[in-house]
Amino acid sequence: MAVHKHKERQAPVNCMVITISDTRTDATDKSGRLMTELLETAGHNVMVKKIISDDKHVIQNEIEAGCKDPYVDVILTNGGTGIAYRDVTIETIKPMLSKEMNGFGEIFRMLSYQEDIGSSAVLSRAIAGVIEHTPIFATPGSSGAVKLAMNKLVIPELAHVINEAKKDIL
């Protein structure tokens, strides 16, 4: 089957957007706002938008709730992906994955390298995968990283990823 056939989806995707930060508030959450705006501009629905602390148990509980929510097709996080001691997003999400989409992080780092980030791209620990039937994308918290990931990787493949992840249950 042709790639464009795989990408077809009739309905908009219902999204959960989570900003993971110990310092951001509704007023200062530029990345969460940007992620929401880009999804809505692409015709998708943001059903849930939250800011949570960079704490393993809080992250895990929110992701589990999103996976159980019948109105959420995909979870998108931003923040907590760095190498600082307090950044635990990747350590929390990775063991939860049924399947990892290795190419997401690899291509994100390549694109970041090419877009003036240079060798600092090696610090990015962006990750994507599927938890049972719910896709999840975890991006760094900078608005530049969110814009890059959403425009170049997430939005172009979002419907395709949902269709593949939910293929056995639809």
From TrEMBL:
Keyword Membrane: no
GO cellular component labels: cytosol
CDD domains in alphabetical order: MogA_MoaB (cd00886)
Biological process according to GO: Mo-molybdopterin cofactor biosynthetic process
Record's keyword terms, sorted: Molybdenum cofactor biosynthesis
Pathway: Cofactor biosynthesis; molybdopterin biosynthesis
Pfam family, one: MoCF_biosynth
Domain of life: Bacteria
Domain annotation MoaB/Mog: ranges: 16-161
Family indicated by similarity: Belongs to the MoaB/Mog family.
Role played: May be involved in the biosynthesis of molybdopterin.
Protein name according to UniProt: Molybdenum cofactor biosynthesis protein B
Annotated organism of origin: Lentibacillus amyloliquefaciens
